TrEMBL record:
GO terms for molecular function: electron transfer activity; heme binding; metal ion binding. Residues 42-119 form the Cytochrome c domain. Keywords: Heme, Iron, Metal-binding, Signal. PROSITE patterns: CYTC, PROKAR_LIPOPROTEIN. This is Cytochrome c domain-containing protein. It comes from Neolewinella marina. It comes from the Bacteria.
Length: 122
């Protein structure tokens, strides 16, 4: 019995960590946030949900956390094409993983536009 518990404990802990990092479903009781003009409004892409699942661990909630060498998006002046390329193919130094096999081209562009909103309030 103890052997089974020792084997299941890491799996249980990993599951708890994943749920704590925003992998759960959004609740319907949350009020919808106002769309930022830079985010593709015509598409049904939930950039905030993608951000919470894919980006928040390194960039943080407001784009300025910098974990593992992630760029501070509040200070970045990079253009949209550069951001799309980095999200699609990853960074040249290998710090950022490519998302071309994870997100659609439309999601990548929406995410690139969303990252540009972090430095609007500076």
């Amino acid at each position: 019995m103890q052997t089974i518990m020792k084997r299941l404990l890491p799996l249980f802990l990993l599951t708890l960590i994943m749920l704590a990092c925003g992998g759960g479903e959004e609740t319907t009781s949350e009020a919808p946030a106002a769309e930022t003009p830079a985010v593709a409004a015509a598409q049904d892409i939930d950039v905030k949900k993608i951000w919470k699942i894919r980006c928040i661990a390194c960039h943080g909630l407001y784009g300025d956390m910098g974990t593992n060498g992630a760029a501070n998006l509040q200070e970045s002046t990079r253009d949209l094409a550069y951001r799309v390329n980095i999200i699609t193919n990853g960074s040249e130094n290998g710090i950022m993983t490519p998302f071309k096999d994870i997100l659609s081209p439309e999601e990548i562009e929406a995410m690139a536009k969303y990252t540009m909103t972090f430095n609007e309030n500076l």
